[in-house]
User: Fold this.
Amino acid sequence: MTQTTLASARHPGSDTPMSLAPDRLTHLQRLEAESIHIMREVAAEAERPVMLYSIGKDSAVMLHLAAKAFFPGKPPFPLLHVDTTWKFQAMYEMRERMARDLGFDLLVHKNPDAVARGINPFDHGPAHTDLWKTEGLKQALAAHGFDAAFGGARRDEEKSRAKERIFSFRSAEQRWDPKNQRPELWRLYNARKNKGESIRVFPISNWTELDIWQYIHLENIPIVPLYFSAARPVVERDGALIMVDDDRFRLRPDETPMMKSVRFRTLGCYPLTGAVESTAETLPQIIQEMLLTTTSERQGRAIDHDQSASMEKKKQEGYF
Amino acid sequence: MSKAYKPADLIETDIDAYLVQHQHKSLLRFITCGSVDDGKSTLIGRLLYDSKMIFEDQLAALEADSRKVGTQGGAIDFALLVDGLAAEREQGITIDVAYRFFATDHRKFIVADTPGHEQYTRNMVTGASTADAAVVLIDARKGVLTQTRRHSYLVNLLGIRNVVLAVNKMDLVGWDQAVFDAIVSEYRDFAGQIGLQTFTAIPMSALDGQNITEPSAAAPWYDGPPLMRWLETVAVDDDLAARPFRMPVQWVNRPNLDFRGFSGQIAAGTVRPGDRVKVLPSGRESRVARIVTQPGDLDQAVAGQSVTLTLADEVDISRGDVLAAADDPCPVANQFESTLVWMDDEPMLPGRPYLMKIGAQTLTASITEPKYRVQVNTLEHIAAKRLELNEIGVCNLSLDRAIPFEAYGANRDLGGFILIDRISNRTVGAGMLHFALRRADNIHWQATDIDKAARADQKSQKGRVVWFTGLSGAGKSTIANLVEKRLHALGRHTYLLDGDNVRHGLNKDLGFTEEDRVENIRRVAEVSKLMVDAGLIVLTAFISPFRAERRMAREMMTADEFVEVYVETPLSVAESRDVKGLYKKARAGELRNFTGIDSPYEPPEHAELTVDTTTLSPIEAAEQIVAWLEAD
Assistant:
């Protein structure tokens, strides 16, 4: 498969497979232009913006777009990773590499309370997500005085996201009020806020999962190798394939890790993230598998299973 | 069911070919208008289903739900797919715009799904603002209804030129061509009235999937496209790329001393290196040197793209300026006629300054009394003093500086704006510029040889306004009078503007509604400004209850000319004094809109001086104020 970047596709007369009429942008070009526009608005209007970095594929696209938006300058905001200490090792490696290669300032926050209490996904259930992610995020935003935080959420992911604004306001207590969202018209974003309030900004709101993958493919964006199939040690637990990524994993008496050809469709804390059996080793194969697949994306993530309105509730409490 | 829109075969056999095909798809954003009863949810569910955007887990859930609560006798009820809205209503959550995504072999689509009822006009306007096309649904049994008219009016107002009249539920009228023709004929008359020049009418049944993806055998008399075919082929880009170049500058990119680029999303036209551009509003000209993007420079860029331009000359450009084709720049003005859609629970008050965001700039705008408001159901023009939530009116706007613009009909990015409340920071309205009013241009400020400083110097003083604010009965007039006497004794040249006195003359046409109070303060501020220009120390004693208007007055003066004095008195104390007997009347309901009783008082947050009348006598308060003024 030859790599055809968007930029070269923009040159009329270049040897792209289908020549573009100069007045016609492709859907990815329109999405890219919109995301860049949003990022520049935030940079111009917020006092202390930050980009939330979760190391997943959506974050990878967001970072890539940020680099484009301010090229040849550096993005005028740092990256923030709210760490749970339970991510896959491959994710930590990617995090360091991306920050270095793109020249971002990287901030890592670990909730000191969760560190002290040794919060982990084995003993603490929902408190794990709540303390590391929700509380950790609030702490980090408050500690640095960030008034605008980019997140890589998409509207096609989940029902409550479909209705969330691109500029989504948080009260001084960092709560989301779905009943009181500002009208958002044209390309005009009202970034004004009262003291203590902050904004979560979702520059890739209008991208779908397929758009993300296709863009990664066309722009050759580095992603964590876990998205590609490989033989990995997993155990089957409660119907899910969980990878034994380090020696903190508590095997049950009847469990023995077995090597299986698996990959991950979403990435989170490794003991909470289900793998799928797959042989997809290239991006086209991943996309092919995704398109032919029979279950929607978030099934692999334990967080949504609790209750159907769980995402909306978590968001109101300050989860991204 | 048709396989025509299931790309599964190609995905399975040749993913690379599929990806190339998908890469070159264009994007169409459209809005669906109509209520749930018209089959809107069914239609969207059908489009998602037919384009295979429903996963099997969702489908399994859908089949189960259809058996349990569906309205289609156990068959798949597509409406359940998208009826987040019904659930919202039960939970009492604001019915909102939801965005949904699907793709066919030719295009990718983003649907703005908005509720149809009148109380959600602002939501529909929001959804329509980014749409390239609109699908207006009609129930064939009911024909053109009031809400059809309202939706069509809004669609046209927001500048959507690609409109489908989707005559749904044709199966329930036996696919009778006469019914369809009558509806189309009635709609055509209405479309002409609102200036909607063309539309495409399609007879369909969303429930049965007739004329959705494939031509319907049930309607052999219809030879137009099925809906999906229309959506896939309708022209998206208008002729924007062929128009003169315009780009609002969002961000000045200056990573080091050697690079200075101007970043923005191109609003119209095409740009190439070497093109001459004019910077607006300054009018300076230069030439485009490079079109910078990552990974490489471009030979040309067109409307819709986000780029960074460098220019051949060093020109002063900042965020909010517009780069335009030098041989065909856009006009610059500071007064406009516009249509406003009000979106806030608090009404629009004429004269009150609002923040206006247009393109990449934010400035201050004040709005005149509406010329009329539009009854969106009947299109009648109705006289109005203000605009309430969801009301639409035509008003003049006056801005604090001139801006480059285009009529909204010609360019959404340069003619569409939002209004922001300066205190709550909420987005309270949206509007569309129609044309510039030339009044301000023709009445130039007459420069005089003797200026403000000269007039003030002659009096050995600094001209300024001492703005007293506080409840009725707080003691504003009493204290202001004492202050003036002392200043006069010190040889200062003063003038006291008293609330009651001004209402006998200059403002005798004004009452006490919120609108009139705003206008009252605006006039007093203008008169004060003239007197400060004359070098006088002006004392004003007005309740002036709203922060927004006090801020307006403050911003009309230079920074050190405005001295806000808060005469602080608790309501109970002011009411117990009741020198003029007004509180008694207000409590008895004989006086309406009385501050502190049935109209709010917003105390100052950053007054230069606060005098507490419960601890200070009027004489002591006046002495403090004079001491402050003389020391400053």
